[in-house]
Amino acid sequence: MEERREAVSEDGVLTRIGQAIMLHRAGDREEARNRLSALWHEIGPQGDAFHRCALAHYMADTQDDPQDELDWDLRALEAAEGFVTERRPSTVPAAGESGVAAAPEGSPGPRHHPLVALRAFFPSLHLNIAADYAALDRPADARAQLLRARASVNALADGEYRQGLRDAIHRLELQLGGAAGRTP
Prior knowledge:
The protein is built from seven helices and no strands. The protein is mainly alpha-helical and 184 residues long. This is Tetratricopeptide repeat protein.
């Protein structure tokens, strides 16, 4: 019975993150930010890494200040990297197994094991951080993150999600090239 309650609780966190995302997409940025903030405090710094990554990833999008957005994106990356490096290979599901967590928006397939979903987050996380650095007029940092985004997008399966990320990486590269006075 305890396992069932824990699984429901974890699914509840993802549901609440999803509800806040829907509020944000519907135009209620402040309420989305308030709900995500409350959930962030509820989860805490020792909470589930997948939840912290997903929450911080979407919390960044609700920020008004570019530095705050960067701070949240860096929290998301830190949670993802910590989760991936701490996982033992024996805990990764075999091919064809499914787990409990949803992959990032637009990524292919049904729900995946959190490790698979977090790995799918990396290109988007690095791209978002690159965009944050660009907004803060830190082009060298932005380019470094774009290199990481490009490397991690190549690890994804072919599909719409991967292509969309590649296109976004290319657009930001062009923007940074123009901003630095280089020709794209």
